[in-house]
Design goal:
The complex is a heterodimer of chains A (about 700) and B (about 600). With about 700 residues, chain A is an alpha+beta fold. Chain A is built from 16 helices and 35 strands. Chain A has six domains: about 70 residues, no CATH class; about 150 residues, Rossmann fold; about 130 residues, Nucleotidyltransferase, domain 5 (2-Layer Sandwich), CATH 3.30.420; about 90 residues, no CATH class; about 110 residues, Dna Ligase, domain 1 (2-Layer Sandwich); about 55 residues, no CATH class. In chain A, the strands form nine sheets. In chain A, strands 13, 14, 15, 20, 23, 24, 31, 34 and 35 form a nine-stranded mixed sheet that branches. In chain A, strands 3-2-1-4-11-12 form a six-stranded mixed sheet. Chain A has a four-stranded parallel sheet with strand order 6-5-9-10, with helices on both faces. The longest helix of chain A has about 30 residues. Chain B has three domains: about 220 residues, no CATH class; about 170 residues, no CATH class; about 45 residues, no CATH class. Chain B is built from twelve helices and 20 strands. Chain B is globular. The chains are: A alpha+beta (about 700), B alpha+beta (about 600). Chains A and B meet through helix 12 and helix 16 of A and helix 1, helix 5, helix 6, helix 7 and helix 9 of B.
Chain lengths: ~700, ~600
């Protein structure tokens, strides 16, 4: 098989992705396992290594996995072209409350922006709810107000009290031992001088104390959200930078002198030394990489509009891809906290293979969100679980292969699955076990389909035109049914749905972006000012791309304006025309805003006045496509692995043909009902659907139109 | 008068299997959620977008709720009387595809005039099979003051436009007569009509999605599922009520006044009677209806009761009519909770909130381990209106101080600082948004030290806000409560302090405002708001001294209050508990200690 490297070089031979390296390595450190995939570009061979994660020393598993993958590929460290890393270091620090001891400076009189939050509560009927603000970031005693004030026009009303800054930080250091400082003054997004001066004062006195400024992290209005993301940035700074710096050193120590890149929450990658400057940007590194893999698989299979589905043991993640581009959001959340950094817009619900089916007190059949997790796990794991789960139902229905599950690591016990379903569901309801198992799948499928629908309608999608990309161990079991329920066009099952995140690391673009405030009614917007703002954004991003050593002339630039009707409080991101920014461009922008508003909300208003809120520029460099087809596809073997008795609604219980997925050649078609087995997942082809092996290595399932429930 | 709306219990035995039932249940809830998302995000007024003062629901053709996406718990069940009134005027057999209905009249099923209910009928095989319904609080529907909830009027006529059941669309086309009447009766026609269009769009989403559902499932099965889902919700709710010990539990609390007769406190009294799986609320003993706009019509009173029922039953119970079948409400006519026309009702939210306090206070006697102490119990909803100096246009806006104060302490934990409680659930206005949109400048917005009621578990804190009006003269509609009656504590927990509002006029005069008054602001006037916290739970002398110390270090409790309320003595630096002195003080608590 020939290399897909374009071979083109822009500015010399050693730019990223264009070096004469041989091996690209993606390393995704997850909670349980560290997945490593290494692509040998000369031989088009892919090796995958799984090593247990080491929560106390994530770098240990990282290096162990890297060394093993390189050895397995028969290569040496200096053959490695680049290492791309997806990390949960930031996420874990937040979820476990193990970030820096943080001090926060605010405008005097407004010290309680954090504990006051936005008042609204997610659980409206819970009399015993907990506060929804990330209060663990800093107790009130570590939040100090500094005399200074800027007004809503960006005019300084009260000069910065520099002595107060030094006194406050001195106190935070001496009395509270703070390890990082976040600064969030009112209206600093219009006038960053006070924050910048504050940082300079702190650096002058305490050169090693990390400082995050709200005017740099997220220069947009709404002080609570801006403060939270800035505080998270500072909170993560020591942990993320020491982790990445030590990895850099250890890589070099082991002879890996190649570029080292980090997956960002927005789905692009960045040089490690740029990533440490904005630690909060790495927070959703892992899920983002999975979506990148899904988007790439969908694109390679010929689909531009996609919904990626990742169904694991406890959760179901949904993300959208429009016209080949992953939908990102700047109003995302982590846990229940607002996190205003650009991130892949992943929506999660509590539905997975481990979701427990139960009858509630009034006899209603429910599935999840409680999960059996990995311990004890579904009943069929034989590890002591007694509650029937979605996986148990899948096994009882005959979809899963009891002898070859989740990498063949262990066996499943169908009898235990059936027993649990009979005891908890089928018996009490007077159904047979297959009816009950099918019911459990119907219910969880409806939950997932409705989640997909809500997420997609909020984004203005018409599901009839899209393809679903099925990932996660359980995704390909259910995706065919979801496609039918949603009326989707097709399902794409990538070659390795179970290790999507590590895979996605190999496929991501290098990406840098910046947002600048521009609060202005459209009627008073100046094309010259907008152009100047974008010129400044471009300069900033170009500087980052220079650090990345990519050929600048091949960087693509996308420009967006965040806009709303005057009086609205949500903004929409509207792409600028790809043309010089002049009066005509602004007129076109206004029209596009109406179009986008119409798409999202189903109506627009020509007469209503529109205002700009901020401007965003995104620079991306697409690395040469690393792979056209996974090496596994060449594995030989009999196409059919026999049959399995399986149950499908309306079709009863029959022997259904089972295929070894990687034994099917490109172009092969398999009519449903059928089952495709592979180590990391099972693909179910439902009656009325046809599966086809695409040359990209993905399996494409085309569903019949939705019928019945 | 009986306010209970019992839907007919379907005679048919169970005809829908539990799998189909759960699938339909999820689909209905998802449809309501989708309508609500669309409505809140596409509306124009900040009251819908930021405050999410809007709800979406699906009803069966008999006027029973099938699913409701209540962005605010205070909207629970609130649309039921309105939908039934519309069905009375336009029976489902007479409804025509393409017609859309609207309504807001308070004495025929509405709640207060800004809330307009819009009903889109859903047809299948030429028959109405369901109703897609939205309700939104509109920014202004005329009346004596901007915002249509003037605090000082004495008749419903001063509160704005009263809309009987009308057709908003006829045969898919706007009913011009009605739209013109609406346009002329609001200070902000663009906003009102924009929000109505958002309601229409959301209603159409519900209609389309229901039509899809009927396309997938035979209509008789669907209609049977509608009935069974209500039965199912009824069973779950009854189980929750059975968890309350049988008995009669009475409680009372007060509203400051009605905005008109400011020296007359208003008593709300309720007896909650639990017998097995039935819960009855009797408002006997509640004061007669007020002159001012604090009266709560039946639709509003019911929502308070429904909130409490749902808080006990849990949010997993499908949000449909079945939840309310085991609940009975007796509200004597001519009282605050069931007034006779033409009493004004614009500020009924305060009354609903106090009804919730009273019901929770009653239930605390039955369920001491579940019910929190009183929360701040008011809504600081302050509107300004006038003519903009820059555009010369009429405008209505919020003065963006947080609506809520602190939450009540719970049996097992402290209350939450500045948080929406019970029937309300709005997002606060960012200071930056407020200053960019209105001529106002904030000097302070901070938690108010010592505003959480002392207790073994402390009440959440309220806040202090100080701001200056920098624009021209405007009408200022000041609406709050708890200026005269404190949020109570439970089981030895202390009450939280009173709210206060002080205006320093630019000529130097200082006025202490009563909780409800229509006044004015002019350039340079400075406002100070003290908004209370929640009551405490349990004897403060039993609070862990280290937690009292943490509260002092974090400025939630002053050193003086630590000693006075909690019997905790700190060393002079204020950074350590003086254990010996604390033990001594707690062994001999000062007079006046103990439950409120």
């Amino acid at each position: 098989m020939s290399s897909t490297d374009t071979g083109a070089t822009g500015n010399g031979g050693n730019a990223v992705g264009e070096r004469r390296g041989r091996l690209i390595v993606g390393i995704d450190v997850g909670g349980t396992f560290t997945d490593v995939v290494a692509l040998d570009r000369e031989q088009q061979a892919l090796v995958a290594v799984k090593v247990p994660s080491q929560p106390r020393d994530p770098a240990g598993a990282f290096l162990e996995g890297l060394r093993r993958a390189v050895a397995l590929a028969g290569r040496r460290p200096d053959d490695v072209e680049r290492v791309v890393h997806g990390t949960t270091i930031g996420t874990n620090a937040v979820l476990e409350h193990k970030g820096a001891t943080l001090g926060i400076l605010t405008t005097a009189g407004f010290e309680d922006i954090l504990p006051m939050g936005r008042m609204k509560r997610a659980e409206m009927y819970d009399l015993n709810a907990d506060p929804e603000e990330p209060l663990f970031l800093a107790p009130r005693r570590r939040i100090i107000g500094i005399p200074e004030r800027v007004d809503a026009h960006g005019t300084v009303l009260r000069a910065l009290d520099e002595e107060a800054v030094l006194a406050a930080v001195g106190r935070l250091r001496d009395e509270h031992g703070v390890e990082a400082i976040a600064v969030c003054y009112l209206f600093s997004f219009l006038c960053p001088e006070h924050e910048e001066r504050t940082a300079a004062l702190i650096h002058g006195r305490w050169p090693d104390l990390p400082v995050s400024l709200s005017s740099a992290v997220d220069p947009r209005f709404r002080e609570y959200e801006r403060l939270v993301v800035t505080a998270f940035d500072a909170y993560l700074r020591p942990a993320v930078s020491s982790y990445l710096r030590s990895l850099e050193e250890r890589l070099a120590g082991h002879g890996f002198r190649c570029p080292f890149q980090i997956m960002q929450s927005h789905g692009g990658i960045s040089a490690s030394r740029l990533a440490v400057e904005r630690p909060v940007g790495t927070m959703l590194s892992g899920p983002a990489a999975g979506v990148v893999a899904g988007a790439a698989a969908g694109r390679d299979a010929g689909f531009r509009d996609l919904v990626t589905l990742d169904m694991g043991g406890t959760s179901f993640d949904v993300a959208m891809v429009r016209d080949g581009r992953i939908e990102t959001s700047t109003e995302g959340r982590i846990d229940k906290y607002p996190l205003r950094v650009p991130m892949v817009d992943v929506h999660t619900i509590g539905a997975g293979g481990g979701s427990i089916a139960f009858l509630d007190a009034a006899g209603g059949l429910k599935v999840g969100p409680e999960s059996a997790g990995a311990q004890p796990g579904p009943a069929c794991y034989g590890k002591g679980g007694t509650e029937p789960t979605v996986t148990d139902a899948g096994l009882a229905l005959g979809y899963l292969n009891p002898a070859r599950y989740a990498g063949g690591g262990f066996e499943l016990y169908p009898e235990l699955a059936r027993e649990a379903i009979v005891r908890r569901i089928a018996g009490p309801l007077g159904m047979d076990v297959l009816q009950a198992a099918a019911g459990i799948h119907d219910i969880v499928n409806t939950q997932m389909a409705e989640a997909v629908r809500l997420v997609s309608v909020r984004r203005g999608y018409d599901l009839r035109g899209i393809a679903l990309v099925a990932m996660g161990g359980a995704g390909p079991v259910h995706a065919g049914r979801l496609a039918a329920l949603l009326g989707a066009r097709a399902v794409v099952v990538p070659p390795r749905p179970g290790v999507g995140s590590a895979y996605g690391l190999l496929m991501a673009d290098i990406r840098h972006e910046q947002v600048r405030p521009y609060p202005r009614p459209m009627a008073r917007a100046s094309a010259a000012e907008v152009a100047a703002a974008f010129a400044a954004i471009d300069a900033h991003c170009a500087e980052a791309m220079r650090v990345e050593q990519v050929p600048l002339e091949r960087v693509t630039v996308h420009r967006y304006a965040e806009m709303r009707y005057i009086g609205q409080s949500y903004e929409l991101s509207v792409p600028l025309p790809d043309a010089p920014i002049d009066a005509a461009a602004l007129t076109a922008l206004r029209r596009r805003f109406d179009e986008v508003h119409d798409r999202y909300y189903g109506h627009h208003s020509d007469e209503s006045e529109v205002e700009l809120v901020s401007l965003r520029g995104v620079h991306a460099y697409t690395l040469p496509a690393p792979v056209s087809r996974p090496a596994d596809a060449s594995a030989a073997g009999p196409a059919s692995a026999g049959t399995r008795d399986a149950h499908f609604a309306g079709h009863g219980h029959h022997a259904v043909p089972v295929y070894d997925r990687f034994a099917l050649p490109p172009g092969a078609t398999v009519p449903g009902p059928a089952i495709l087995d592979q180590d990391d997942t099972t693909t179910v082809v439902y009656p009325g659907q046809v599966a086809r092996v695409h040359t990209s290595g993905s399996v494409i399932i085309e569903p019949a139109p939705a019928h019945g429930r | 008068m009986r306010l209970t709306h019992e839907g007919a219990v379907p005679a048919a035995a169970r005809t829908v299997d539990p799998i189909t039932l759960e699938v339909v249940n999820q689909r209905l809830q998802s449809i309501a959620d989708e309508m609500e998302t669309s409505l809140c995000r596409s509306a124009f007024s900040s009251i819908v977008k930021e405050a999410m003062d809007a709800s979406s629901a699906l009803f069966d053709r008999g006027g029973n709720t099938l699913a409701q996406a209540a962005a605010l718990p205070g909207h629970l069940g609130m649309m039921i009387p309105a939908v039934r009134r519309i069905l009375e005027a336009f029976p489902s057999q007479a409804m025509r595809p393409g017609d859309v209905y609207a309504f807001n009249e308070v004495y025929e099923g509405g709640t207060h005039l800004p809330d307009i209910t819009v009903v889109v009928p859903v047809f299948w095989d030429g028959e109405v099979v369901a109703l897609s319904v939205t309700m939104a609080h509109h920014q202004d529907v005329g009346g004596a003051a901007p915002g249509s909830t003037p605090p000082n009027v004495t008749e419903i006529f001063a509160e704005g436009l009263r809309l009987p059941p009308v057709r908003l669309l006829v045969d898919g086309q706007p009913n011009r007569d009605v739209w013109e009447i609406l346009r002329l009766n609001t200070r902000v026609p663009e906003t009102l009509l924009g929000d109505l269009r958002a309601q229409l769009a959301a209603g159409n989403i519900g209609r389309r999605r229901l039509e899809e559902l009927f396309g997938e499932c035979p209509a008789p099965t669907m209609l049977a599922a509608f009935d069974e889902l209500q039965d199912y919700a009824e069973r779950l709710t009854r189980l929750a009520v059975e968890g309350i010990p049988d008995g009669d539990y009475a409680f009372e609390d007060f509203l400051d006044h009605d905005g008109v007769e400011r020296d007359r406190p208003l008593r709300i009294r309720a007896t909650v009677s639990v017998r097995g799986s039935r819960l009855r609320v009797d408002f006997a003993g509640t004061d007669a209806q007020a002159k001012g706009p604090i009266n709560s019509v039946p639709a509003s009173t019911m929502s308070a009761v429904y909130y409490v029922v749902r808080a006990l039953a849990g949010s997993r119970v499908p949000n449909n009519q079945g939840c309310y079948r085991c609940v009975e409400i007796d509200a004597p006519e001519g009282t605050l909770v069931n007034p006779l026309p033409p009493a004004p009702v614009g500020l009924r939210s305060y009354t609903i909130k106090r009804i919730v306090d009273v019901l929770l206070g009653a239930l605390a006697q039955a369920l001491p381990d579940r019910i929190p102490a009183a929360s701040h119990g008011q809504i600081s909803l302050m509107l300004v209106g006038g003519r903009r100096r820059d555009t010369n246009k009429l405008f209505v806006g919020f003065l963006g101080v947080p609506f809520s104060g602190g939450g009540g302490a719970r049996p097992g934990k402290d209350g939450i600082d500045v948080v929406e409680t019970d029937i309300n659930n709005c997002t606060s206005y960012p200071i930056e948004a407020c200053e960019m949109e209105s001529p106002v400048q904030f000097d302070r917005l901070q938690l108010w030290t010592d505003s959480g009621g002392a207790g073994r578990h402390r009440g959440g804190l309220g806040y202090v806000a100080v701001c200056r009006w920098t624009g021209g003269p405007v009408v200022f509609s000041h609406r709050r409560d708890r200026h005269n009656f404190r949020p109570w504590g439970l089981y030895g927990g202390q009450a939280a302090p009173l709210c206060r509002t002080v205006v320093a006029r630019r000529d130097g005069r200082v006025e202490e405002l009563p909780s409800k008054i229509l006044t004015h602001l002019d350039e340079g006037d400075t406002l100070q708001f003290f908004t209370t916290g929640g009551g405490g739970y349990g004897d403060p002398l039993t609070r862990d001294p280290d937690r009292v110390l943490a509260d002092v270090l974090d400025g939630r409790v002053s050193m003086e209050a630590a000693r006075r309320e909690y019997g905790v003595v700190l060393d002079p630096s204020g950074s350590r508990v003086d254990s010996a002195a604390t033990q001594a003080l707690r062994a001999h608590p000062r007079d006046g200690a103990g439950p409120a």
